[in-house]
Amino acid sequence: MIKATLRILLIPIALVACGGAQRTGDETRSGAQELVLGITADDKVSSSDDESDWKRFRVDSQTTAIITIYWDNPAVGARMTLRDQFGAPLGEAKHVADASSDSIPEVRLGEGSYYVEVVATKGASVYTLDVQLGGPSSAGVPRPE
Length: 145
Hints:
There is one protein chain. The chain has 1 helix and 9 strands; from the N terminus they run H-E-E-E-E-E-E-E-E-E. By secondary structure, it is mainly β. The protein has a 5-stranded mixed sheet, with no helix packed on it. A 4-stranded antiparallel sheet has the order 2-9-4-7, with no helix packed on it.
């Protein structure tokens, strides 16, 4: 009985010590890391131990956004999804093999919170995420008074 209990207690320790799944806290929408708009964010995803990252940002008024992700390893299999405050998808970019970047084209956003989910489906890569508000269609349009 004592040996069986000891084995059950040691299995989780062995998994962690042998390089089990690496958790960074941003694997879910509730753990999303806050993005500072106007500043790029760097992180890493890996299909073997850190499959997804979630980032969040807030906009205070209606605007457009273009979201671009730059890959250090263009051979990675991945996708990036823009989601609303409830997690519903608003746009997606599946990584094109050997491309150095992918973008979610201009999307119109209302006031509120938004999330970017980055998922590795094959391999691993460090990435740089860039969220640009006020895309090309807003250039030259006066602000409402």
